[in-house]
């Protein structure tokens, strides 16, 4: 099969290419690396979007922030707005692949690749983020929580380009964390991951979000874990109950990276750690980014 390759200079050029059947490539760390490793052949027609400057910035947006599709993991980690107000997202991007993967890999590619083990999904779901999908016939907004249909599949049409990710204004008394279990420090894919966002009202937890990663066909929130935290002081008993509920919300798969039993046991440990770090940050204590690297 001959692969045709074009480079778009504008969003309109990219959308026209998609309408004609091309697949977009941003950093190429999934699409091109996957093809080289024989996971999937390269599509017949590809349009490179990495030169579209309009898709590059991180912007303040209605009290929250907007990340255009080409924002890289390295740029997310370097952003003060993300580190201070959406810390779990910085935790996530900071552990994607290697230094090279983070310099090259984009937020748009991470989301559209839709791996159940991908790092940024849990934080984005817990922050109520949404994406803007654009095609030649118009644009629409989809919550990240509704974006994933299954492993490797999104609700986006083949002619739709993800152009932006929007994160609404967070509550001032909140803290968040994303933690994954790791066998080694670099070049790792999540075996088990957990996100926690807590909002404090004085000493009590007024609101909580808990999501689990790589523990079900798609990343998902666990309302029972959230319910175990709300109204408590975030004491050890409440945190343990929430972590157990998070593990109970998983539908783990067995694969080459871990057995089902091991994943379920680790889900509780990792969820507890994410909740503890989110609480520490909400109470104003600095926990280094990424939270996965910092040990209690
Ligand atoms: C060695 C290595 C280690 C990695 N480690 C991790 C890890 O730890 N955690 C993790 O989450 N990921 C990891 N990845 C996966 C990958 O690096 C990330 O998912 C990255 O963010 C993908 O971004 P990209 O721009 O390179 O995507 P690309 O490869 O360019 O694209 C990925 C997919 O998304 C589509 N796409 C890209 N941009 C758009 C857009 N704007 N609109 C619509 N569709 C689009 C492409 O058509 C393709 O199907 C790793 C990859 C490698 C090679």
Record the SSE blueprint.
Blueprint: E1 4-7, H1 11-19, E2 23-25, H2 31-36, E3 45-48, E4 58-61, E5 64-68, H3 73-78, H4 80-85, H5 87-93, H6 99-104, H7 107-113, H8 121-126, E6 130-135, E7 138-143, H9 144-147, E8 148-150, E9 153-154, E10 161-167, E11 174-180, E12 193-201, E13 204-213, E14 220-221, H10 223-229, H11 236-248, H12 260-282
Parallel strand pairs: 1-3, 2-3
Antiparallel strand pairs: 4-5, 5-10, 6-7, 6-10, 8-9, 11-12, 12-13, 13-14
Helix pairs in contact: 10-11, 11-12
Bound molecules: flavin-adenine dinucleotide.
Quick overview:
Helix content is 34%, strand content 24%.
Q: Percent of residues in helical segments?
A: 25-40%
Strand order of the largest sheet: 4-5-10-6-7
- Compute the average pLDDT: 92
Q: How would you spell out the order of helices and strands?
A: EHEHEEEHHHHHHEEHEEEEEEEHHH
Annotation, overall tally of beta strands: 14
Q: Beta-strand level of the residues, as a percent range?
A: 15-25%
What is the end-to-end distance? 53 Å
Heterogens: flavin-adenine dinucleotide
Major sheet details: 5 strands, antiparallel
Radius of gyration: 19 Å
Which structural class should the secondary elements be placed in? alpha+beta
Helix tally equals 12
Query: Low-confidence runs (pLDDT<50, min 5 residues)?
Result: none
Query: What spatial form do the alpha-carbon principal axes imply?
Result: globular
């Amino acid at each position: 099969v001959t692969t045709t390759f074009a480079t778009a200079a504008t969003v309109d050029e990219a959308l026209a290419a998609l309408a004609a059947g091309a697949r977009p490539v941003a950093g190429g760390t999934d699409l091109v690396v996957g093809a080289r490793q024989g996971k999937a052949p390269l599509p017949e027609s590809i349009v490179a979007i990495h030169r579209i400057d309009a898709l590059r910035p991180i912007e303040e947006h209605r009290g929250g922030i907007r990340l255009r599709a080409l924002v890289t993991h390295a740029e997310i980690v370097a952003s003060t707005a993300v580190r201070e107000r959406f810390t779990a997202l910085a935790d996530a991007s900071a552990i994607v692949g290697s230094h090279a993967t983070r310099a090259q890999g984009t937020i748009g590619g991470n989301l559209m690749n839709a791996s159940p083990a991908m790092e940024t999904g849990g934080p984005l779901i817990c922050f109520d983020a949404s994406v803007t999908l654009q095609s030649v016939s118009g644009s629409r907004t989809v919550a990240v929580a509704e974006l994933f249909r299954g492993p490797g599949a999104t609700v986006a049409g083949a002619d739709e380009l993800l152009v932006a990710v929007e994160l609404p204004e967070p509550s001032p008394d909140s803290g968040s964390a994303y933690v994954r279990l790791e066998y080694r420090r670099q070049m790792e894919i999540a075996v088990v991951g957990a996100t926690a966002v807590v909002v404090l009202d004085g000493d009590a937890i007024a609101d909580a979000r808990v999501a689990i990663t790589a523990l079900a066909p798609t990343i998902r929130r666990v309302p029972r874990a959230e319910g175990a935290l709300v109204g408590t002081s975030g004491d050890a008993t409440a945190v343990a109950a929430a972590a157990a509920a998070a593990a109970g919300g998983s539908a783990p798969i067995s694969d080459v990276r871990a057995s089902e039993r091991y994943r379920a046991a680790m889900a509780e440990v990792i969820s507890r750690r994410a909740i503890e770090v989110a609480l520490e940050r909400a109470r104003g204590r600095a926990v280094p980014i990424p939270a996965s690297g910092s040990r209690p």
